[in-house]
C-alpha cells in the first residue's frame, strides 16, 4: 500500500497504539490531541471506538475541550473518509446529510472474528483467576457457537478442558461434533448444567433465566461475555450464591496492542476494497 | 423417537448398514431386495444415495430387475415420505406431479458437514499412502475453507502438518488466522505453491490451471476432493510429472458404517422437523 | 480403598481442602487446629506443605501455639505414618532416629507432573495479564523441557502461540520436533531471543545471564517459574527495562482445590504402594 | 559442518535416498553398488539398516555379489568410522577385535523418537484403511506410553479420536492425564477393552493374551506395532474373529524419504558428538 496521510481523531490509548502501528508501516500520522484538529491534507480520518459516548461529541478523553460531531462533519472535505467504530444509525444518517463518507470498522466481520481472540484469552484469564480449580480437565460449557464460541472452544480444548457447547441449529450441532466438542441442545441444558465447572455465555439475550439457574451447582463460575445487558439473571445468581462475572470490552483491556493491530488490518481492508 | 416402519428401497452396502442401524434403534425394517417392494404399512421409504444413476430407475444394484422411478411414485400412498440422496431437479418435479413428499437427505447441511469427517480421513489416508514423506512437519496447502477445508485443516494440524489455506474472502482469512493456520490469498498462490508437499483441493471449479501448475514442485502430491470434473488440469499435471489423485465418494469407501450413521442421524432430524 | 483415619496436622487452606476431599471419599478425619493434637487411633498423619518453615515447628498457621516437630515425632505410635511435603534432609534424619515412618509426598514424581498443570495455567494467566498482546499468534520461548516445559508447551500450542523450546539434549530436541514445537539449541539462544514476545523459564539455574539478556527485545515479558533464586539476572533485566515476573507456588495460589486433589491422589498412591 | 567423504555401503532404496540427502548437503558421496567398494579416502562408511540379514554378509540387495562382513572390517583404515543400523552384539565384538570404530545409529534415542512419527502415521493409515468407521469420535486404546505411544496418542487426539492409554507406572498415569488422555491401569483392561474400536499395541511382549482377547468386541481392529513376535495371541484372535494387523518396519514403508532424513540427522549428531 502506498503511504497515506491519517488524522487520528480522539480516542484512548488504543488510538495511540494504532497511530504508532500506522506510523511504523510508513504512513504520515497526525494525532488530534497533540497536533490539533488539522483536517487539511489528510486522506483518512480515524475516529475512536466507540465513536461517541454521549451522541453529541467525539469520544476523545485526551482532548481538553469537547469536539462536537457536527464540527467534524463540517470540517471534512470531499474525498476524505472518516472511519470509526460502533457508530449509531443516528450518526450514520447525519453523515449522509453532510455528504460525508463514514465507515464503521467495528461492523466488519473480519474485525469481529479477530476480536474474538483477545476476548477468548481474557475470558480464560478470568476463569483461571476466579476459580479454585484448573481449566484443565474441568467441565466447561459454552453457550452459543458464533465467533467467540468457536474461538473460545478451540482454546479451552487446547488447554485440556472438556468442552460442551449448547447450540440450537442442527447445523451447528454437526459442526460442534465434527470439531470434537460435545454438543448439548438447549432443551437438554437443565439436565447438564449441574455438572459444569465453568459456563461461558456468548448469547446476547436472557439465556440463564431464574429457572435455568436453579439447575446450577453453586460452585460453578459463570463468565458472561454478551454485551449489555448480558445473558444472565444476575440478581437470581447472586441470591443462589453463584459467582457471575460480566466481562465487557475485553480486547481493549486484555490486549490493547493486538486490538489496535486488528483495527489497523481492518482499515487496510476497507482502503483496499474502496480503492482509497 | 417412537418406533417407525421403514422400507429400505434399493441401494448398496451402505443401505444395508443403514437398515441395521435403524433396526438396532428399535424400528421396523423391510428391505426391498429381500422382502420385495412392499409399500403397504411403512411410514418412510429410504431410497439410495444416489437416488438414480440413469434418471429412469432406482439405483438398486442388489435387485435382479430394474425398478422404474414411476412405479415407486405410483405405489406410494398418502402420508408416506420418500427420502433419498442426490435427487435431480427433474425427479423432484416429477414427484410433485404425483403429489409425493420427496426429501433429499444429501442436501441437508448437517449431513454435508458430518460427511466431511470421513472425507478428510480418506484424504489423509491417501496422502500417507502416496508419498515418501510424513504429513507431520510437511507443508500442506488446502484450497478452499468450506466444510471439508475446515475439518481437514483441523485434522492435519492435529497430526502436525504446517497448514496453509488459500481463501478469497477477507472474512475467511480472519477465520483461518484465528484458528492458527497460515492464510494465503489466491493472488499469492503462485509464489507459495512451490514450497508445498501436499495440496488438497476442495473447490469445485478449475482452480489448478495450466498456468498455476507450472509453479508447482514436481514432488508435490495433489489430492483433488472436488466433485467431477474436479479442480485440476489433469492432463497438464501429468505432463509436468505431478501426481494427482482425484478422490471421490470417500465417505462410502473409507467409512461406510460411519457414513450410514450420518444418514441415519439426518433422517432422524428430518423426521423430527417435519413431525413425521 | 477401605476407609482410614487421618489426622490433618497444621497447614493452611490447602490442608482444609484436602481434609474435605478425604472426608468426601468416606474417610474419618480429625483436624488438628479444631479438634486438637489427637494422635490416638489415626492411621495416617497428613502434615502440611511445606512441612516446616523454621526448621523447628510444624507449618501450622491456624494453630495458636507453635507445634515443635519433636513433639509430633514423640507422640507418634508404631504403625502410624506421617506424610508431609517438602521435608528437608535434617528432618528426615531426625525421623529415622525416632523410628518414625516419614514420607514426603512432594517428592513423588506423579505429584510433580500433575502440579505442572496448575503451574502452567498460572503462568498463562500471568502472561495474559501482564502483556498488551495476545498469546495467540505470539512467539513464545520456553527454557527447559521437563515437566513444566512439556505441559506449558502443550497448553500454549493449544491457545495458538508459536512455541519455541530451548533444550540441550539431542533426545529432547527430537521430542520437541515430534510434538510440533520448534527446537532451539542453547547455543542458538542469542540469535533467537530477540524475536520472542514471551519467555518462560523453567530451569533452576542462572540461565538468563547479563550477557543473554542483552539480546532481548525490551517488550519481551519474562515469566520465571524456577524455584528460588530463579533463573534470571533480575537486576540486569530491570536495568534493561525488561519486565520479569518471578512466579512461585502457583498451584496453591491459582487452583488450591486442584492442588489439594493432587496431594490426595498422591497420598492414595503411597498408601497403596506401602500396603498401609 | 564441513563437507565429508561418505561411502554408502549396501542397503536398499533408503540408502539411495540417504545418499541423495547427504549429496544435497554438499558432501562427497560414493555408492558401493555403482562405484565399487572403494574404501580409500572416505571418512565415514554408512552401512545399511539392518546391517546384515544372515550374520555373515552385508545387507546389500543391489550388489551382485555378497560382501562378507570380514572383508569390510579388513578393508577399513585407521580413523575411518563405520555407521550402520541394528548391529548384533556378535558383530560389535568382531569389530572390536579388528580395532574398527563401529556405531549403531539405530540405537540412538533421537532416531527412535523421530522414527515414531512415520510409525504413527503408518498405523493411522492402516486404521483408516481396515475399518468401516472413522477414527474421529471412535474409542482408541493404546497399550504402552513409550515413544510410539506418546506420538501416536498426540496424532489420534489431533484427528478427534477418544484416546485411552493403558500404562503401568503411576508416573505414566500422571503424564497421560496431564496430556488430556484417559488413563487405564492394566488391571482395568478387561473391563474397558470391550468398548474400544481400535487397539494399538506398542509393548513388545505378549500383552493381549487368550484371556484378555475374550473381553474384546469382535468389531475391534487391533494394530500391533511391537517388533516380532508382537504382543498378540494371533491364533486366538483369529479364532475369535478379531482382525489383527501386525505392522512392522513402517518408517521405511510409509515414508522412506523421511526415514532417510532421520538417519541423516542422527549421523550428523554422531559426527558432532565424536568430533569426526
Automatic annotation (TrEMBL), chains A, B, C, D:
Residue intervals of the D-isomer specific 2-hydroxyacid dehydrogenase NAD-binding domain: 131-223
InterPro entries per the UniProt record, alphabetical: D-isomer_DH_NAD-bd, DpaA_N, NAD(P)-bd_dom_sf
A molecular-function term among this protein's GO annotations: NAD binding
Domain Dipicolinate synthase subunit A N-terminal: 5-106
SUPFAM superfamilies, sorted: NAD(P)-binding Rossmann-fold domains
Pfam family, one: 2-Hacid_dh_C
Protein name: Dipicolinate synthase subunit A
Source species of the chain: Tepidimicrobium xylanilyticum
